[in-house]
Amino acid sequence: MKSRKRTRSLILGILCCLMMGSATAQADAPLNGTQPAQWRVIWTADPATKATISWSTKEAGSSHSVRFRVKDSDDRLAEQLAESGRYTGGEFESYYHHARLTDLQPGTAYEVQMVSDANESPVFYFVTAPATDRDFSILHGGDSRSDQDARRRINKMIAELVESSYDNDDLSDDILALAHGGDYIVTGKKMELWSMWLSDHELTTSSDGRLLPIIPARGNHDKGKPFNEVFGFAEDDLNYYGINLSPQVRFTTLNSETSTAGDQAQWLKAELKASRDSNRWLLTQYHRPVYPAVKTPGAGLVSWVPLFEQYNVDLVCEADGHNIKRTVPIRDGKSDETGVVYIGEGGLGVPQRTPKTDRWFLESPGMADQGHHVFVLKFTKEALHGTCLLLDGTIRDQFTRPVRK
């Protein structure tokens, strides 16, 4: 195994990212014929053994598949046919392709190449989630919709963060995926805006061709059919699901843009009940905050918060507010060390709002601020460590959640 170097710090990696550009210039290329583009890896079910490899073409084409094998192996290339269709949304014509890989080996790097008709993408790779109880990190953020320049800069920073995270022997630094809390674009029914977002998302690809899996949540600006088409959900999927990022980390995605009560609340109760005793860490993400730094509380305050507290969710990731926040631990509507911490609220490329720092749940040891940002969440056997990184590489906030006794 290639040895890792300890010569680059996290912040140096970010600063280098801000000066880079040539390695990801393909993200500027428009869709052209049946040339594969807008590549992405999506995790919505058992990421240790499954992944959806998706891409777009300008024209429909007739044959679409992914070639794949274990990276740097002599294995014979396997091929998985893709499900294809035309994106819905205005007069902008383009086509989606989703190849669903199954029976993968956990914790394994796979080479992938998208093929549409006779046109091939570059060869990329991604890594499946581990089946062992190991330390690792993920990224979380939201709201990448209305400042394309900031979005592109954040995406470049993400690429460098991922690459730098593997430059040492500390497994807890290794970034496995990006959880996106919703609001990708301004108007979810306009496919031309989704196409811009998808091309910009290519910038999260590392210089060595590593694709960072995305764990998607639906936001209030993501109304319409394209969301399910972009992320490979079935047409009638309600966009709430749970996955294990490792045997001891359960990550649940909810949909704040449909009823938070009824079927979804019943599903959440069963999900948390089944997951709590068998996982060291239990996290949830969704879009509309229940303890917001700017807006009024979302409906999840009534439907979900009692369940978060009943089953001792360790961390809740929110978006929508266009600011930075971390609440005090909350239980029964007041500060309580045994309670649930909420972070957010979206800075992946959207103008920032001024938070209302006088709200009780944002007072010290909580915090609130503004600035384009992404959260790095590090999971170890002893604690969950969170770091909020600004676009210039500044560490704006750090916190630790110990393992619940």
Q: Could you please describe the fold and organization of this structure?
A:
- The protein is an alpha+beta fold.
- It has 7 helices and 24 strands.
- The chain has helices at residues 10-19, 148-165, 191-201, 226-230, 262-276, 300-303, 305-310, and strands at 37-42, 51-57, 64-70, 78-81, 83-86, 95-101, 109-116, 119-120, 124-127, 136-141, 175-180, 214-216, 241-246, 249-253, 281-285, 315-317, 324-326, 330-331, 334-335, 341-344, 367-369, 373-379, 383-390, 395-402.
- The chain has a 7-stranded mixed sheet, covered by helices on one side.
- Helix 1 packs across helix 2.
- Residues 1-26 have low confidence and may be disordered.
- InterPro entries: Calcineurin-like_PHP, Metallo-depent_PP-like, PAPs-like, PAPs_N, Purple_acid_Pase-like_N.
- Residues 173-320 form the Calcineurin-like phosphoesterase domain.
- Pfam families: Metallophos, Pur_ac_phosph_N.
What number of domains?
2
- CATH-defined topology of the largest domain: Purple Acid Phosphatase, chain A, domain 2
Total helix count?
7
Tell how many strands the DSSP assignment holds.
24
**CATH architecture descriptor name of the largest domain:** 4-Layer Sandwich
Helix content: 10-25%
User: What profile does the largest beta sheet have?
Assistant: 7 strands, mixed
Strand content of the residues, in percent? Answer: 25-35%
From the helix content, strand content and strand pairing, which structural class follows? alpha+beta
CATH superfamily of the largest domain: Metallo-dependent phosphatases
User: Strand order within the widest sheet?
Assistant: 13-14-15-16-20-17-21
The low-pLDDT segments are: 1-26
**How would you state the average pLDDT, rounded?**
93
Report the top-level CATH class of the largest domain: Alpha Beta
Protein name: Phosphohydrolase
GO molecular function, one term: metal ion binding
Domain Purple acid phosphatase N-terminal: 36-128
Domain Calcineurin-like phosphoesterase: 173-320
